[in-house]
Amino acid sequence: MAPRKVIITCAVTGAIHTPTMSDALPYTPDEIAKQAIDAAEAGAAIVHLHARNPKNGSISIDPKDFMAFLPRIKQSTDAVVNISTGGSMLTPIEDRIAPARSASAEMSSMNMGSMNFSFHGLADRYKEFKFDWEEEYIRNSEGFIFRNSFADIAQVARQLGHEHQVKFEHECYDVGHLYNLKFCLDQGMFKAPLFIQFVMGILGGIGAEVENLVFMKQTADRLFGDSYQWSVLGAGNAQMKLAPIAAEMGGNVRVGLEDSLFIERGKLATSNAQQVRKIRGMLEERGYEIATPTEAREMLGLKGGDKVAF
């Protein structure tokens, strides 16, 4: 019996962590491109991408900032490029999907429900910040409501899924989000096979406990049967703990500096590729093979990297 293939996704920069928190966090186009390419070479079949303001590292959903690195990544690697639609919790959905829409992305994230999404506790860990925007942004997240209404989801499904054949990484931060996804599937918004990302350990969502992962998986099995693939995102110190457990349960894994800045407890990672290499080693030691981008495209039913607009 051939070893099972496991897809590694690497989330390169995200919209939570700020430059003060780690010198390794990329925010210029050169840094994002290099770290995405290095992560792909280390074994990530999918690179999940956000953009940043190249001058101060703040969050950007400007398509121009994405286009400063997307073509370079495509030219240097065959990895699946997954463009986030959740880059800002303070802007309407039409602005959040603009980068993926203008790029006619092969794959994009889609958040499957509204939630309180907060990381305000991180502010107290730092006495000084590199840039003026950071502390206020972090502290103000205590009041963030990350809006993803059914109308928003329908708009994303229509304008990305139907018009551009984008495949979604359905990010489910709690059990209720799985039921939201089931409703939307029954309404004809999406087609199987689904790709579900269990997002665990974000304040406002489900905790990063193994028991919760088992429950999420059992619920998804009941709702979607064998018509889905899944992966797990463990935030912070849950990253390397949950990833190999997910593989043992039949899932795929996501790592990257978006989700955790560390390589082990108390030690900052030096790059996204370092995290990819670590999880790859853990998986290969357990007898799994790491899926190539071509294999990931086949497993997830993607349109192909030759059908994007960058």
UniProtKB/TrEMBL annotation:
Quote the InterPro entries the UniProt record gives.
Aldolase_TIM, BKACE
Keywords in alphabetical order: Metal-binding, Transferase, Zinc
Looking at the keywords, is Chaperone present? no
Question: Which co-factors does it depend on?
Answer: Zn(2+)
Q: So where does this one cross the membrane?
A: none
Task: Answer whether the UniProt record assigns the keyword Protein biosynthesis to this protein.
Answer: no
Q: What is this protein called?
A: 3-keto-5-aminohexanoate cleavage protein
